[in-house]
């Protein structure tokens, strides 16, 4: 058994059985091992940022890491944008990156690069396997790191000679005897700010906010937060960017903080203290002239109930105990919105209502509709129960790859990818993978033929009115993109819609049909 085969066995022994791949020459022995050994689902992406984005989406739904297979430093570099998003989302991923042999590195061949230097900014752990005897233990450590709480990016460089060398007999069973990966244990039952939190909720609940993030936004966490709100009258909000939020009818409604600085400041102005439950103190996404970087009111006090390393359900349950709230029905339960027939021209508000009225129960929504979708949060709060995933790092080209990973993690569920035309062009190759894997993904592309969000940002930062050159840099015309044609060329059925009636019918047809489809919404 060679090193590559040992690594595949190690990954499988540690319950890692999905690998998103874009391999090259240095990885051919690992490819051969994946071919020879049963149990690993291998999913090809036509660009490395599709691969890494899919691994991010997979983790958010499966709650366990997948592997990526990347070709040397340049291949890893191509995937860094979505690794950035994954790191901000605290997703666990094991990157397997092929490398030259030690002797060939000395020759400085064209693809020689500093893999550790490339990996480090987006990885929590980077390691090169020095000899074939270490491959099993190194692979097990990579899975352990990625599968901890919170999830982490573990990057393992696999030199070609380590992959092709035979593992000595004495080391061949190492992969079977290593301890399996497990999540970190929960933090202390009583947080350091416990007494101050209790006092704030009892004495001044109207000026106290529960700010939920990370795993606190699962249904079990929001249910407990709703009970605390019912007992005290405190407010509940979620961070704007959420790795996975379980929401919709029958669940506690937790509004996300606004993206825009002025709206965010207004939303937080009345709170003298904010209790953090897996969340961070809210800040503006960018710096703007004469606007604050922190969105909270001056002098606001932050109290920590739980961090992403902790179990938020345990912390919130303890708070319910202290407030005698367990017996109370939760506040802010969303009621199912009655289905309504919508007609007329396409507007962001109308689109949001159509999405809410047609969404199947347990859909996974992956949202990167930056210009059109800002108001979708409030408009879909009373839709059927669903999960809502957003890019946590702001690197665009997230939604389509993440939809691929989510669909592979939960093949029984429909995935809805909401994507802008500018963002979608970063990772349009995802459509090919959707077709190849017959994934149940409905992709909606909002076509405004511009980087619409940047037109707004130009004014927001005080850069003045755009002239011809600036307008050209922010426009997607000359020529116009044909998303339906692009989708069909990659095996995905597509339709163009120009009003709310046709959008409704296109969504319903897609939801009732297996496999992927694309809806091109043209304003």
Question: Helix and strand layout, with pairings?
Answer:
Layout: H1 3-13, E1 18-22, H2 28-36, E2 41-44, H3 48-62, E3 66-70, H4 72-78, H5 80-88, E4 93-99, H6 102-105, H7 115-119, E5 125-128, H8 135-146, E6 153-159, H9 160-164, H10 174-177, H11 194-203, E7 208-212, H12 219-232, E8 235-238, E9 245-247, H13 261-268, E10 273-277, E11 301-306, H14 312-323, H15 348-358, E12 363-368, H16 376-379, E13 386-390, H17 399-409, E14 415-420, H18 421-424, H19 430-436, E15 441-447, H20 452-460, H21 468-473, H22 483-489, E16 493-497, H23 500-511, E17 517-522
Parallel strand pairs: 1-2, 1-3, 3-4, 4-6, 5-6, 7-8, 7-10, 10-11, 12-13, 12-14, 14-15, 15-17, 16-17
Antiparallel strand pairs: 9-13
Helix pairs in contact: 1-2, 1-8, 3-5, 3-17, 12-14, 15-23
Domain Thiamine pyrophosphate enzyme TPP-binding: 384-521
Domain Thiamine pyrophosphate enzyme N-terminal TPP-binding: 1-106
Region (Disordered): 168-188
């Amino acid at each position: 058994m060679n090193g590559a085969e040992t690594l595949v066995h190690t990954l499988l022994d540690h319950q890692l059985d999905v690998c998103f791949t874009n391999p090259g020459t240095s990885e051919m022995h690992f490819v051969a091992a994946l071919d020879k050994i049963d149990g690993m689902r291998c999913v090809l992406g036509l660009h490395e940022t599709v691969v890494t984005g899919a691994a991010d989406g997979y983790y958010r739904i499966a709650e366990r890491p997948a592997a990526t297979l990347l070709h040397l430093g340049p291949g890893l570099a191509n995937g860094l944008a979505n690794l950035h998003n994954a790191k901000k989302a605290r997703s666990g991923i094991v990157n397997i990156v092929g490398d030259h042999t030690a002797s060939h590195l000395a020759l400085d061949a064209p693809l020689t690069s500093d893999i550790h230097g490339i990996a480090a900014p987006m990885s929590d752990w980077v390691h090169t396997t020095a000899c074939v005897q270490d491959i099993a233990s190194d692979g097990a450590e990579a899975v352990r790191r990625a599968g901890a709480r919170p999830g982490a990016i573990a990057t393992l460089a696999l030199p070609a000679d380590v992959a092709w060398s035979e593992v000595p007999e004495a080391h061949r069973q190492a992969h079977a005897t290593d301890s399996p990966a497990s999540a970190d244990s929960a933090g202390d039952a009583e947080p350091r700010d416990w007494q101050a939190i209790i006092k704030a909720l009892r004495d001044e609940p109207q000026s106290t906010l529960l700010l939920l993030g990370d795993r606190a936004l699962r249904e079990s966490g929001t249910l407990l937060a709703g009970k605390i709100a019912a007992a005290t009258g405190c407010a509940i909000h979620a961070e704007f960017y959420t790795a996975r939020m379980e929401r919709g009818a029958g669940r506690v409604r937790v509004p996300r903080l606004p993206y825009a600085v002025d709206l965010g400041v207004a939303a937080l102005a009345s709170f003298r203290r904010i209790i953090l439950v897996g969340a961070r103190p809210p800040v503006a996404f960018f710096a703007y002239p004469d606007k604050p970087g922190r969105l909270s009111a001056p002098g606001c006090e932050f109290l920590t109930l739980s961090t992403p390393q902790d179990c938020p359900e345990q912390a919130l349950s303890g708070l319910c105990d202290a407030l005698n709230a367990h017996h109370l029905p939760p506040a802010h339960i969303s009621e199912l919105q009655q289905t309504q027939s919508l007609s007329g021209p396409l507007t962001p508000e109308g689109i949001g209502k159509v999405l809410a009225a047609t969404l199947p129960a347990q859909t996974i929504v992956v949202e990167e509709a930056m210009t059109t979708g800002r108001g979708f949060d409030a408009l879909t709060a009373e839709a059927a129960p669903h999960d809502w995933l957003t890019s946590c790092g702001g690197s665009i080209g997230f939604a389509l790859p993440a939809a691929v990973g989510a669909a592979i993690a939960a093949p029984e569920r429909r995935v809805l990818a909401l994507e802008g035309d500018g963002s979608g062009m970063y990772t349009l190759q995802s459509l090919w993978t959707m077709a190849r894997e017959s994934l149940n993904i409905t992709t909606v592309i909002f076509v405004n033929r511009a980087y619409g969000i940047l037109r707004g940002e130009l004014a927001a930062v005080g850069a003045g009115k755009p002239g011809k050159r600036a307008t050209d840099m922010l426009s997607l015309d000359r020529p116009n993109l044909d998303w339906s044609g692009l989708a069909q060329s990659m095996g995905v059925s597509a339709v163009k819609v120009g009003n709310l009636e046709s959008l409704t019918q296109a969504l319903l047809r897609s939801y009732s049909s297996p496999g992927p489809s694309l809806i091109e919404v043209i304003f």
